[in-house]
Amino acid sequence: MTDVTDGVLHTLFRSEQGGHEQVVLCQDRASGLKAVIAIHSTALGPALGGTRFYPYATEEEAVADALNLARGMSYKNAMAGLDHGGGKAVIIGDPERIKTEDLLLAYGRFVASLGGRYVTACDVGTYVADMDVVARANPWTTGRSPENGGAGDSSVLTAYGVFQGMRASAQHLWGDPTLRGRTVGVAGVGKVGHYLVEHLLQDGARVVITDVRTEAVRRITDAHPEVAVAADTEALIRTEGLDIYAPCALGGALDDHSVPVLTAKVVCGAANNQLAHPGVEKDLADRGILYAPDYVVNAGGVIQVADELHGFDFDRCKAKASKIFDTTLAIFARAKEDGIPPAAAADRIAEQRMAEARAEALPGGGAQR
C-alpha cells in the first residue's frame, strides 16, 4: 500500500465518483511499482477492465482516472450483456522508462491478492506481451497471446464495434447504415484507430486523421495516400464538411472548448470517458449533434477478453460485437422516447440491469449470482 495523502482521500470519497466497492493503492518499492486498482461494481459478476500504464502528474490524478474508468467499465459490461462488473487499474509512470518484468509481476501479485474479484487486461500503455507476464503471477488475466492461452490483440474487435456504432448512427440520422460518401475524422490512429480507418475506407468513407505521433500518421498515409491529415485535433474538429468525429485517444475530448466549435453531426469513437464533465451530453444535444455513448460502441474489446475466460472463439466474439449496432439503435430510440440525451439513456439501461442483478442476489430475490 502507498501512503495516502489528503488529496488522494478527497478523490476517493467524492460522491460523484459513484460509490466504488473497493480501491486498492499498490506499491512495490523493489520494482518501482505504484498502481491503483479500482473495483466499481461486482453486481453482475467479477469486475473486468484493463490496466492503463501512464505518467500521471499526481497520485490524485491517477486515482481519479482509475475511479472514472472503473465506473465506465461497469456500464460498458452491463450494456454489452456480459456477466461482469466494472473495474480498472492504472500503473503510474512512463511505460517507456519504467516498465520491467519485475514491475509487471509485482502488479500481477496485487491483482491476484483480490482473489478473482478483478480480472485485468490491456489498456493504454500495456500490451499482449505485458499480460503474458502479469499472467505468470495472476490467474485472473486476459488479453494474453494465443501462445499463452489468450485471444491476442483486442483492438481488432474494439474497432469493429465502433464501426458498428457508426453504422447505427448513420442509420438513425440519415436512414442508411453506411458511411459511404461520409467524411469521418479520426483523432488517434494507434491501437484501435488504425483498424477503424481500415473499416471506414472499405465502406467508402472519406477519412481525415490526426495523431500526436508522426509515425502513427505515416503508417496510415503510406498505406492509404488518399487519407487526409489534419494538423492537430483542434484543426480536425473544425474541418468543414465533417460528418462524424471519432475520438480514439485519451478521454475528455468533448468539453466546453471543443463542443461549441465541432462541425460534425455525429460523435462516435473508441476513447473512454469522452465527456469531460456532466452536462456535456446536453450541450451536444442542444447543438443537434448525435452522441453514440463511448462505453457502448467501444465494447468490442471487452467482449473479446471476457470470452477468453471461457475458451476464445473469434467468430462468436465478432457476432456478439456486431450486436453493438442494435444496442446503439436501441439507445437512440430510448433517448427519443424519454426526451433525454443518448448518454443518459444508456446509463438508465445499464443501471437497470445492475439493479435487477443486485435484487436477484438478495435472499428470496431469485437466482443467486
TrEMBL record:
The keyword RNA-binding does not apply. Residues 152-362 form the Glutamate/phenylalanine/leucine/valine/L-tryptophan dehydrogenase C-terminal domain. Keywords: Branched-chain amino acid catabolism, NAD, Oxidoreductase. Gene3D superfamilies: Leucine Dehydrogenase, chain A, domain 1, NAD(P)-binding Rossmann-like Domain. It is an enzyme of class 1 (oxidoreductase). Its EC number is 1.4.1.23. It catalyses: L-valine + NAD(+) + H2O = 3-methyl-2-oxobutanoate + NH4(+) + NADH + H(+). Pfam families: ELFV_dehydrog (PF00208), ELFV_dehydrog_N (PF02812). Homodimer. This is Valine dehydrogenase. The lineage of its organism: Bacteria, Bacillati, Actinomycetota, Actinomycetes, Kitasatosporales.
